[in-house]
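Q: Predict the assembly, please.
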Amino acid sequence: MRVVIAEDLFLLRDGLVRLVQAYGHSVVAAVETGPAALDALLTSRPDVAIVDVRLPPTFSDEGLQAALAARREVPGLPVLILSQHVEQLYARELLADGQGGIGYQLKDRVLDAGQFMDALGRVAGGGTALDPAVVAKLLGRAGGMDKVRADPLASLTERERSVLALMAEGLSNTAIAGRLFLSEGAISKYTTTIFARLGLAAADDTNRRVRAVLTYLSANDQRSS
Amino acid sequence: MTMLARGALGWSREIVLGLYRSVLLVGLTAPIPAIGAAVWFFGTLFALSWSAKLTSPLIVVIVATAGEGALGAVWCAIAVSIAIRRGGRPLSQAARLLAGKWLGLRIEAQYRPLPPVTQMSTGFWWNGYEYHRTEREARRQGRMSHGLRDPQLYRDVLWIAAAAVTVLPAAVLPLLGLGAGISMVPVHAGYGVAMIIVGLALAPFAWRTLGPVASRFLGSTGPAALGKRVRELESIQADMTQTQAAELERIERGLHDGAQSRLVALGMSMGAAEQLIDTDPAAARTILAEARVSSAAALAELRLLVRGINPPVLAERGLVDAIRALALDTPVQVTVRSNIPSRPERPVESAIYFAVSELLANAAKHAHARQVSVELGYGGRTLTVAVTDDGGGGATAAHGSGLTGIERRMAALSGHVKIDSPAGGPTCVTVAVPCVLS
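A: Predicted assembly structure:
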């Protein structure tokens, strides 16, 4: 894969470059500012990009804006956003175009190289890789509201919830089965139940599943934005 | 037709209210001028009676009459000053109260507190102005000096004088029209009815002269108002230094107990792994895996700490988006609306953000609200945020509650907090901070 990396901290940028190269991919550009990131994304058209939310010169959300701008130019351009903190607000903005190829992860996840590269691969393949922390927030919010609004999510069992959470992170049935130590058949049964309970048409495409879940979640609070 | 009827009803209500208020205003403004006028009139009359039968050369009569006239004026002045000493303050306070109740004018008076009387080591008594031999004398003289030296009392005298020539005649007019009209009707019906109508027509307006005169004369003097502001600022400053110290201590403890100790543990684990790597690679690997978990925990703690100091979304996106992010993380339905034109200054942003954070947490936790709306607005150089929920209500800024904390934060920025929370809800807390946005 051809990878673009935009990160302002030298140590982390250097580490990411090495990590990506160690897994046999090539880094076509490693930049440190927002405008440079946008430029690299548009000119070198990488297979996937790793972009930090906060970049110079303003140290606001330059990286996020660069990624969103690049995806407006090139719909579906795969971008994995890294941040010191995860916000539902940003996750929703990133997923809003419904194009897939989006990752949104805490910087801490880089510590687990295997899982991080896994996520990068999923994003490059047009899937999604949301951080478990942001997924927990998305589902936690919906769960908190269920007492009040008779939310369909409330009707899910503990096990179905954890399957839904992994699904929202972007994992395939096989991967979910691996994480939960269950058979793939059992997982596909769970997903069918979840889709039925949430009133969603079942679809086997990873990306579409997450989008369906997130669309459902954001439909819950359209009034809040 | 109904509208006409309602209009007529409204007007008659206004007239009755106006008459009632005029009576009250006459009662408040007339006594002291009336005492002065009566003493002057009867006093002069009495004094003049002494020289009435005087049969002397004209020049002597003129001098005597002038002296008697002056004596009347002196008596009048003495009577008025006594009346003001006795009644000036209650009458002015009552006028302040009425101006507040009827017109919503908040006029604050700054009467100086009476200094305490204390015995000095010399045995003399100090009343704040001078020394006296006995306590009783010190108190008496103290009250006297106090009355003469309080600038607010001079303002009260000004108010009484000004009201005597403005509010009093205006308030008397409708009553005079009504009274004179009624007594005229038997003699001359036409004039009588006309005067009654004029009196009634004036009633809704006459009492309103209170507004401008009161706000001009009833307020406190500049220095007194400044003194009050200085005291307020002093207490805010004391609060600020306290809060700041507490915040620093919280951050220090967070770093010391959290990240710092985890880094120590991390270093120790690494050292152990280094020792074991040749002899027992499997154990070394286990230790390294634990170390990684520990570093992740340290990161999570740091993230939480940073969120409490300066929330990253606030830094990245500004107030409105930060509040939207907050709304998404709150386990109740939150609607955010904003019409602020640009980003406020950082201290304002931060204070408003934490206030809203606290209010949302209250709405979810204590009020058990289902719906919360947050409205940010800007107008008249003031940034306002109204947080309304449909919860149980009954929120007060009781000591130690989160609302006092918000009040304190806002006071530091010259802002204020308005809490409207009847028992049973809904609760609306409005936070307003003066600031300039372009």
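The mean pLDDT of chain B is 85. The CA atoms of residues 40 and 76 of chain B lie 5 Å apart.
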